[in-house]
C-alpha cells in the first residue's frame, strides 16, 4: 500500500527551515567574508538566473541554452533606466523583472513551436540574436563598451551603495529570499503541478483538457521575471552592464550549475550555483593556469557519482535514513 504524503504542516515547516537556512548562510557569508561581498553578490545574481532556468528546464522539461537572453534583458533595462534618471534600486529591479518577463514571453512564443533539439537550437539562436542586437545598438546599449556610470540612489533613501558592496549584498540576499519563497509557492500551486505534469506525461494532461502552450508560456514569463531581477541586481551591484550579461556562455554555465545541483529542485539550483562558483573562484586563485581543467574534472566526478545532482542525492539519502515517502510537488 502506498504511503501517505507528509502533512501540510510538515511541508511548510521544512520550507520555513529552508528559508531560515538560506538567510543564515547569507548572513554568515556577510560576516565571514567581508572582503568578498562583490563576489557573493554576483553569486546571488547568478543564483536567480539558475532558479529561473530550473523553472522551465527542471519543472517543465523545456530544452534551453538561451536563459542569458532573459538575464541580459533585465540588466540592460535596469542600466538604461538608471542612466535615464530612474535610480531607485527597488524600481530598477522591478524594471528588470518586467523586461525579463516580456522577453520571456517573446522567447517562449518562439521556442514552444518546437520540441527537443530544434527547441534547444532556437534558444541558442535567440540569445545570439539579442547579443548581436545589443552590440549593434550602441547608441542605446553602449555596444561593446557596455553601459557604465550607473549610480543607483540609496536603498530606501538611507543605505548608499558603498565600495565594499555591503548594501548591494544585503539587498541581493533579501531579494533572493523573497524570490525563493515566491517560487516555492508557485511550484507547489496547481499551476506548478500542471507544469510538472506536462513534463512527466503531456498526453495525460492534454486528455484533461488543459492546453500546454498557455501554461508553459506563463512559466516562461515567470522565469523571465526572475532572471531579469538577477540581471538588474548585477547592474545595480557592479554599476556597469556589458555584453557578457547576454551571452551564450552565461547560459551554458547556468545549465551546468543546474545539472550539478539537481534539476526540478529549487534548493538544487542554489546548491549547484554555490558549488560551481565557489570551485571556480577558489581553484582559479590556487592555480590560475590549469583551473579550468581541475574544475572540469570535479564537475565530471559530481555528474558521474551523483546523476540526479547533489540535491537529489542528498534528498534520497535523507529519505532512506528517515524512511519518509517522496515529497509530492517538490
Please describe the topology of this protein.
Elements: H1 8-32, H2 37-57, H3 68-83, H4 89-111, H5 116-136, H6 138-141, H7 166-188, H8 190-200, H9 202-207, H10 212-238, H11 248-261, H12 266-286, H13 291-305, H14 309-322
Task: Name its key features.
73% helix; 330 residues; mainly alpha; 14 helices
Overall description:
73% of the residues lie in helices and 0% in strands. The protein has helices spanning 8-32, 37-57, 68-83, 89-111, 116-136, 138-141, 166-188, 190-200, 202-207, 212-238, 248-261, 266-286, 291-305, 309-322. The chain starts with 7 loop residues before the first helix and ends in an 8-residue tail after the last helix. The mean pLDDT is 88.
Task: Give a brief description.
The protein contains 14 helices and no strands. It has 330 residues and is an all-alpha fold.
| Number of strand elements | 0
Distance between the termini: 22 Å
Portion of residues within helices? over 70%
| Percentage of residues in DSSP E strands | under 5%
Please compute the radius of gyration using only Cα atoms: 20 Å
Count of helical segments?
Answer: 14
Poorly predicted ranges: none
**Helix/strand order:** HHHHHHHHHHHHHH
For the biggest sheet, the summary is:
none
Amino acid at each position: 500500500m502506498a504511503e501517505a504524503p507528509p502533512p501540510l504542516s510538515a511541508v511548510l515547516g521544512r520550507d520555513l527551515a529552508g528559508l531560515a537556512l538560506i538567510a543564515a548562510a547569507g548572513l554568515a557569508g556577510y560576516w565571514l567574508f567581508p572582503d568578498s561581498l562583490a563576489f557573493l553578490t554576483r553569486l546571488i545574481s547568478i543564483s536567480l538566473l539558475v532558479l529561473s532556468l530550473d523553472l522551465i528546464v527542471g519543472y517543465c522539461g523545456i530544452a534551453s541554452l538561451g536563459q542569458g537572453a532573459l538575464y541580459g534583458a533585465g540588466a540592460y533595462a535596469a542600466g538604461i533606466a538608471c542612466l535615464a534618471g530612474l535610480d531607485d534600486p527597488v524600481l530598477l529591479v522591478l524594471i528588470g523583472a518586467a523586461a525579463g518577463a516580456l522577453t520571456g514571453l517573446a522567447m517562449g512564443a518562439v521556442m514552444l513551436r518546437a520540441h527537443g533539439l530544434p527547441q534547444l537550437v532556437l534558444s541558442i539562436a535567440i540569445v545570439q540574436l539579442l547579443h548581436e542586437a545589443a552590440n549593434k545598438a550602441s547608441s542605446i546599449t553602449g555596444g561593446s563598451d557596455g553601459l557604465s556610470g550607473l549610480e543607483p540612489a540609496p536603498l530606501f533613501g538611507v543605505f548608499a551603495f558603498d565600495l565594499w558592496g555591503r548594501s548591494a549584498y544585503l539587498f541581493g540576499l533579501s531579494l533572493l529570499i523573497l524570490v525563493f519563497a515566491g517560487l516555492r509557492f508557485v511550484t507547489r500551486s496547481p499551476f506548478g503541478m500542471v507544469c510538472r505534469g506536462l513534463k512527466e506525461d503531456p498526453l495525460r494532461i492534454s486528455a484533461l483538457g488543459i492546453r500546454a502552450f498557455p501554461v508553459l508560456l506563463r512559466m516562461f514569463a515567470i522565469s523571465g521575471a526572475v532572471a531579469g531581477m538577477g540581471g538588474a541586481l548585477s547592474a545595480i551591484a557592479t554599476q556597469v552592464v556589458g555584453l557578457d550579461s547576454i551571452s551564450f556562455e552565461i547560459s551554458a554555465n547556468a545549465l551546468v550549475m543546474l545539472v550539478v545541483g539537481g534539476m526540478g529542485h529549487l534548493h538544487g539550483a542554489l546548491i549547484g550555483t554555490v558549488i560551481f562558483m565557489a570551485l571556480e573562484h577558489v581553484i582559479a586563485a590556487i592555480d590560475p593556469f590549469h583551473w579550468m581543467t581541475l574544475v572540469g574534472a570535479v564537475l565530471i566526478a559530481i555528474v558521474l557519482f551523483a546523476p540526479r545532482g547533489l540535491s537529489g542525492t542528498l534528498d534520497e539519502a535523507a529519505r532512506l535514513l528517515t524512511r519518509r515517502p517522496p515529497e509530492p510537488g517538490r
